[in-house]
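Practice problem. Given the sequence and the SMILES for zinc ion, write out the predicted structure.
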Amino acid sequence: MKVKKYKVKIIGNGEECKNCNILMQRREHSEITHKIRQMSYYFSEWDYCSNCKHVQHYEKFKVFNKTEKGNIAKYLEEQNMLFKNL
Ligand SMILES: [Zn+2]
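Answer key:
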């Protein structure tokens, strides 16, 4: 069965693979799809080892998607600002 390939872009060298001690590929999404935005967070960049297929994620590349909860918090913040200005 043919598996639909995830669209990624190789943007350079990443860190060393802890299994193979070779530089991994630094990858990013070639496109931030609707599906990615539906998740609570995603990684903007990550490393991939072409040798052992190890995938390494880093906290610093974690991107949180806007949730409904987040929007409510922002709304309340704006309301507070409004009252402060009264
Ligand atoms: Zn490896």
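Check your answer against the key. The chain is about 25% helix and 35% strand.
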